[in-house]
Write a structure and sequence with these properties.
There is one protein chain. The chain is α+β, with helices and mostly antiparallel strands and about 200 residues long. It has a single domain, classed as Nucleoside Triphosphate Pyrophosphohydrolase. It is about 30% helix and about 25% strand. It contains six helices and eight strands; from the N terminus they run H-E-E-E-E-E-H-E-E-H-E-H-H-H. Strands 1, 2, 3, 4, 5, 6, 7 and 8 form an eight-stranded mixed beta sheet that branches.
Amino acid sequence: MMYTFQKTKFRIFLYEINVMERKIAPEKGPECLGRWCPSSLEKINHPGFVIRGGIILYVPSTTGKEGKILLGMKIKNKKYTDFGGGCKTKKGETPFECAKREFLEETLGVVANDLKNITHILITGTKQPHQVVLMVKVDSLSLQSVEKDYASAFQKARNPELSGIKVVSLEDFMALTKYQMAESIYVLRSDVERIVRGEKLR
């Protein structure tokens, strides 16, 4: 990842990770979905549990208002994606630290999020846990200017990973085909829909 952040941002990032880890207790934490969910949420956030971490911000659907999802768009193939990537497991990076770092890098630092608002932890993998994606609930006001802010930061970035970010309605998200979505988010499509709709998942 080539985008360089100021030291103060990294200090804030590490502080938020520490606060977030204290907030997520097994009895009070977010709901875990997937065949690889362990008996305790504390077991998820350890180096090596997965090799990929990501974040999806969403605005839940309410009466009369459709939910929204923040997605990125890959530069090479123009596919929609979550904000995530490979974890630095050899350096002891935990899945949550990985997800937070990738989010900061891929959004070029223009999108605020609070990991204390994680509602669900999605874990996928075929023969073993592969990725952890954190679903973070936000309000619509926090996403009002993100597309414009990213476009401005994109012009100054040396090696951005995404061509843009987009706030997508739930209806438009569900209309996307497999060929329009990165595999990392396509495998979560059904769960993401139900989470945004506020449906019970168990």
